[in-house]
Amino acid sequence: MTPWYREPWPWLLMAGPATVLVAGAATTWIAFASADGLVAEDYYKQGLGINRRLAREDAAREQGITARIELSSTITVELTGAAPEALFVHLAHATRSGYDVRLRLAPTGSGAYVAPLPALPRGRWRIAIEDPRGAWRILKEVS
């Protein structure tokens, strides 16, 4: 008679639970190693401020302010309907807040505003363009 560890059936029966233990450990490691970038810590305050943001977007529409954006090694915004002394642009990554960038754009004199743009990872970006006083805001999305 052969010992139990030389038989294939005990090993076959133990393979299932062993696989589940390894998969569970891998899942636990992934859950703790990668933070969830979609959940804001101050979500309640952000929720309260949504009406102010919507009012600023409505103000841009009512004043007829529009923007055209070009992204390369620089960010260029061509603004129509307003000419503030500068623009603030917030580039927000769709899933990772650690990639977000806030820039101040200076006017070039031809209705355009320009600033150097750091290298951005590929993905979907939400761009918020604001005047320095915070009276209006325009939202755009680029991929």
Task: Write structural notes for this entry.
It is a single chain. The chain has helices at residues 8-33, 43-48, 50-62, and strands at 66-71, 74-80, 87-93, 101-107, 112-116, 125-130, 137-142. The chain contains 3 helices and 7 strands, in the order H-H-H-E-E-E-E-E-E-E. It has 143 residues and is α+β, with helices and mostly antiparallel strands. The N and C termini lie far apart (68 Å). The model has no long low-confidence stretch (mean pLDDT 86). The protein is elongated. Strands 1-2-5-4-3-6-7 form a 7-stranded antiparallel β-sheet.
Spell out the key features of this protein.
143 residues, alpha+beta, seven-stranded antiparallel β-sheet
Summary of the model, kept short:
This protein is an alpha+beta fold and 143 residues long. It is 31% helix and 31% strand. The chain has three helices and seven strands.
Topology, please?
Blueprint: H1 8-33, H2 43-48, H3 50-62, E1 66-71, E2 74-80, E3 87-93, E4 101-107, E5 112-116, E6 125-130, E7 137-142
Antiparallel strand pairs: 1-2, 2-5, 3-4, 3-6, 4-5, 6-7
Overall, the morphology is elongated
Low-pLDDT windows of residues: none
Rg from alpha-carbon coordinates: 26 Å
Q: SSE order in H/E notation?
A: HHHEEEEEEE
Number of strands: 7
In which order are the strands of the major sheet placed? Answer: 1-2-5-4-3-6-7
User: How far apart, in Å, are the first and last alpha carbons?
Assistant: 68 Å
**Strand-pairing-aware structural class:** alpha+beta
Strand content: 25-35%
Q: Classify the helix fraction into a percent range.
A: 25-40%
**Mind summarizing the main beta sheet?**
7 strands, antiparallel
The average pLDDT value, as a whole number, equals 86
Count of individual helical segments: 3
